[in-house]
Amino acid sequence: MPGGRAGAGELLERVLDAGGRESWDVPPRRVAAPGSAYERELAAARERSGRDEAVVTGAGLLRGRRVAYVVSEFGFLAGSIGVATADRIVAAVERATAEGLPLVAAPSSGGTRMQEGTLAFAQMARITAAVTRHRAAGLPYLVYLRHPTTGGVFASWGSLGHVTAAEPGALIGFLGPRVYEGLYGEPFPEGVQRAENLFDKGLVDAVVGIGELGAVAAGALDVLCARTPPPAPPPLPPPAVERRQPVRVPDQGPAWDSIVSSRRPDRPGVRELLRYGAAAVTPMSGTQQGEADPGVLLALARFGDAPCVVVGQDRRSQREGHLLGPAGLRVARRGMSLAAELGLPLLTVVDTPGAVLSAEAEEGGLAGEIARCLADLITLSAPTLCLLMGEGTGGAALALLPADRVLAARHAWLSPLPPEGASVIVHRTPDRAAEMAAAQRVRSADLLGDGIADALIDERPDAADEPEAFCRRTAAAVGEALTALAGLPPEERLARRAARYR
What we know:
The chain is an alpha/beta fold. It is 41% helix and 17% strand. Strand 4 (103-106), helix 4 and strand 5 form a beta-alpha-beta unit.
C-alpha cells in the first residue's frame, strides 16, 4: 500500500510542466439541505482538504503538449462522486472534447457519495456518456488509478482508458474491502485488489509511481495523438431538449417495503415476463466465445407488434447462486451488438441482488465489463428500453440502466449498494439498512421524481401475488414503449438520449 497519499495538487505539480496550468472549476451547485448534517460534512470537508469538491479539473502542459485533466481529491469525502462532482467532471470532459484535447484522469475515490444515494449513483452513467463521446471524437483518454479506487468510479470512468496505469500498491477493486467484510463477515482475499495483481491479470497496462507518470503519459500521447481521428460526432443538443415536465409522484409505502417485496422468492422475473407476455421467444446462449452465465438471459422476442432483443437478469438463477460475473456482462454486450447489427430495439431487464463478489470476478475484469456495458448501451444505435423489474443493486444494475426510456415496477428499486452495505459505510453496521434505503431515495416513486425512471407499472398489491396479471400488464407497457421508440426518427431519438445522459 502506498506510504503516503498524494493530493490532487501535488500530483499535478509533479506530472505537468511548471507554469501555464489553468483551472476549469466553477463553484459547485448546492446539494445539501440548509442546516443538515450533510451540509456540515461538506463544510468540514472543504476546510480539511482546501477544496470545494472531490475533483479538480483544468488544462496544462505535459512535456509541452496541452492536455485536460480530471483529478480526484481523496481528502474531500473520500473522493466520492455526488451530483455536483459529476457536474464538474462532465463539464471538463465536454470542454476537452470541444477543444480537441487529450484527457488525463486520475481517480482516487470510494465511489458513490452515500449521502446523496441513488441520484448520485446514476451520475456514473452521465460521466460515462461524456467519456464515451470524447473517445468517439478520436481523442486520447488516459487513466491513472490511484490508491484507493473502488466502486462505481472504477466501474465507469476509471475503466475506459485507452491506456490505464496504476499507482504502486494501490487498492483497486469493485467493492471496497470494508463493505465486503461488513456484509459477509470475513475479509476479502488478500492481494487480489492490488495494482500489481491487476497488472499480472492484464487489467491495467502499467504500474508506475507518480514520479514516472509524466514520462509514461507523454510517451503514450506521442503515439495516440498521431493517429488520424474519425469524423467529429455531431454537436450535443442543448440540455433543454430533454428538460422534463414535473411528474406526479404516486403515494408509496416505505422504501423498505419495496426491498422486502423485491426479495420474495416467488416474485416473477424475466422468465415469467417472456412466458406470459411475449411471443416468438427464441432463447440464445452465451457469448459465442466460449463463455456463458446463467444469471443473464438472452433472447429474441416480440411484445405485441414490437420485436426486440432481450437482455434480462434472471432472478431465479441468481437466487440459486449464479450471481452475475464478467461473463454475464459480456453476454449482455453480445445482445447489444446483435440489436445494433439487426436494427432491432433492445430491452434490458434489471433484476439483480448485485454482481458476484469474488477474487475470480475481480481478476476477470468485472468493473471493466460494467463500464463497457454502460458505454455500449449509451452509444447503441438501436432503440433501447430498460425495465426495472425488481432488485437493482450496484454496478450490475447500473450496467443495463441508461436507455432511451426506463420503466419501473412499483416495488422495483435502484441503489449503489444493497441497503445493508450502505449502512455499513455510513453507520458501521448493516442494522440501519431500512433507514439508508429511505435516505438514498431508492424507491421507484423516487426514481420517477428524480428523472431516472419515466413511468411506473402498478403491482396490485404485489407482483408475487398476481404473477400472470402483472407480467401481462408489464408486457403491454413494454410493447407500447418499444413501438413508440421505434417510431421516432433515429436522429431525434439519439439526440434525446444524449441530452438525457448529459
